[in-house]
């Protein structure tokens, strides 16, 4: 068997095993933890994301709101769950990344978590009333 045939067979075997792993993985519901309260922008976007994910993966994606200071309730709830891929969460990058720089936390953002995608990009502006001096 030449190298190209061997490589093709290896890629095919990996593809088959990945499909089997995905089929096994995607049989349970997914928990989508939101670090903000229900009804706000982050919650609405998370619920839209959950609907799309549920349709794409064929499993329920349940949104759970865990608001609180510096996103710690949401972060800790995810950190304390098994690392099996069935729990995802959203957070605000400034809070999530800055808090460990200002105080001791039980997590290291870029070591304990892996970003899956950046869903919203927003910039802030400072406003004042038009009739202000």
Description:
With 133 residues, the protein is mainly alpha-helical. The protein has a domain at 26-112: 3-Layer(aba) Sandwich (D-Maltodextrin-Binding Protein, domain 2). Helix content is 47%, strand content 11%. The protein contains 5 helices and 3 strands, in the order αβαβαβαα. The protein has helices at 3-25, 41-57, 72-79, 93-102, 109-112; strands spanning 30-34, 61-65, 87-90. Strands 2-1-3 form a 3-stranded parallel β-sheet, with helices on both faces. The longest helix has 23 residues, at 3-25. The chain is globular and about 65 Å long. It starts with a helix and ends in a 21-residue tail after the last helix.
CATH topology of one domain: D-Maltodextrin-Binding Protein, domain 2
Q: What is the residue-averaged pLDDT?
A: 80
Strand order of the largest sheet: 2-1-3
**N-C termini distance:** 82 Å
Question: At CATH's second level, what is the architecture of one domain?
Answer: 3-Layer(aba) Sandwich
DSSP, total strands: 3
Structural class by SSE content = mainly alpha
Residue runs with pLDDT of under 50 for 5 or more positions? 3-18
Q: List SSEs in N-to-C order.
A: HEHEHEHH
Secondary structure elements and their pairing?
Elements: H1 3-25, E1 30-34, H2 41-57, E2 61-65, H3 72-79, E3 87-90, H4 93-102, H5 109-112
Parallel strand pairs: 1-2, 1-3
């Amino acid at each position: 068997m030449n190298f190209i045939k061997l490589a093709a067979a290896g890629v095919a075997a990996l593809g088959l095993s990945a499909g089997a792993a995905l089929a096994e993985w995607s049989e349970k519901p997914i928990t989508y933890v939101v670090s903000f309260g229900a009804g706000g922008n982050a919650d609405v976007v998370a619920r839209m994301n959950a609907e799309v994910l549920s349709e794409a993966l064929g499993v329920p994606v349940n949104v759970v709101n865990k608001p609180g200071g510096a996103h710690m309730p949401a972060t800790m709830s995810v950190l304390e769950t098994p690392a099996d891929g069935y729990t995802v969460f959203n957070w605000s990058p400034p809070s999530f990344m800055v808090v460990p720089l200002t105080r001791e936390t039980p997590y290291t953002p870029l070591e304990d978590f892996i970003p899956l995608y950046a869903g919203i990009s927003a910039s802030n502006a400072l406003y004042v009333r038009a009739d202000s001096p």
